[in-house]
Structure formats: structure tokens, C-alpha cells
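Mods, move this if it's the wrong board.
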Amino acid sequence: MVGRILTTQECMEEGALWLAAQAPRFAHALRLTGTPPLRRKPDGFAHVLSAIVSQQVSTHAARAIWGRMEVAGLVTPEAVLAADDETLRAPGLSGQKMRYARALAASGIDFAALRALPDTEVVRILVEVPGIGHWTAEIYAMFSLGRADVFAPADLALQESAKRLFALPERPKEAALRKLSAAWTPWRTVAAGLLWAYYRVETEREGIT
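Not the wrong board. C-alpha cells:
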């Protein structure tokens, strides 16, 4: 079943206060950062395609490529499948990303139906598409679907922030951080928001864009 959906900033505040009550280190982070903002984004094919476009390039380059794809109308499954290599390459897609874009377009995923599926099923469906890993699927569930209890332990900023906040001897790997985050249910998305905010305070750098 679908759990709590983050719809307002009050939801974020409720989750942050719960986490602060459960773990003194989250209380410390909350005092430094304040409640993390609700970062909802649209859901659907275009948002996942945008995430694929953004892989392994700078934020500036990703925005430029995506802007050119929007101008060219290459933001629907039909348009991507109808486009030849030259058309897809023109905005700046590499050969690998062209393959990923076509795989996503051909996947037949019903993005509206994902809204009613459990978190684990959403992630399972998305990672079946070449080019979509757990990080991308989890970020989609967090921000596009507003799921309150999803975490992205492969995120390097979350790993580094957890190391600093919890005074760990080394930066936790994905499996270790996933295990650690189990204690933050049912507000793991808010926990991620606090950790990203704490990372920015500690390093004066953005964790994700």
C-alpha cells in the first residue's frame, strides 16, 4: 500500500520534529538548518528522461541539453521513438543516452499508475529500464511522487553528511547507510532532506540539484 505523501511544508515539519525526537543528532541538524523545504517536482515520462539526460554531466550542461530537447519537442515517448539518431544527437545526447531514452520511451510505463503503487514496486518498475538505477528511481519516488519514506543511500552527499552528523569513522557505503536509515522510518525522505541541508551547512556546497 502507498504510505504517507508529502503535500505541504507542514508535512516536512512534522517529519523533522519526529526525527529530532528520535535522534539527538537530527535535533542538532534541525537547529542548524531549519526544516528542509518540500521539493516536489512533476511526475511522468519527461521528468525521468530529464534525470537520464543529467547523468554524468554538469548541472549547467544538463540544463542546456534539456532545454534544447524541450525546444525540439523530444520530451514524449512518441517523439523519442520517432526520432532518428541525428535528431536525438543534435540537442547533445550521447549514443548511450540515446539508447537509454529509447528504452524508457519503449518501456510502456504507466506513470500515472505509479502514483498508486507501493514504494518498492515503483523502484522495481523503474530500475528495469536500462539507464535507470536505484538512485534515480528513489529520487523520483521522493520528489516526483512525494513519498515520505524513501531514501537514496547511494547518494554521495547523503553518505558524507551521515558520516559527519553521526561522527562515523568513515563514509558509509550504500548497504550500510540503507541499514542505518531503517531507524528513520516512516520519515526517511525528510531525513534525507535534513542530511542534504546539513551537508550544505557543513561544506557550503550543494548536495544535489
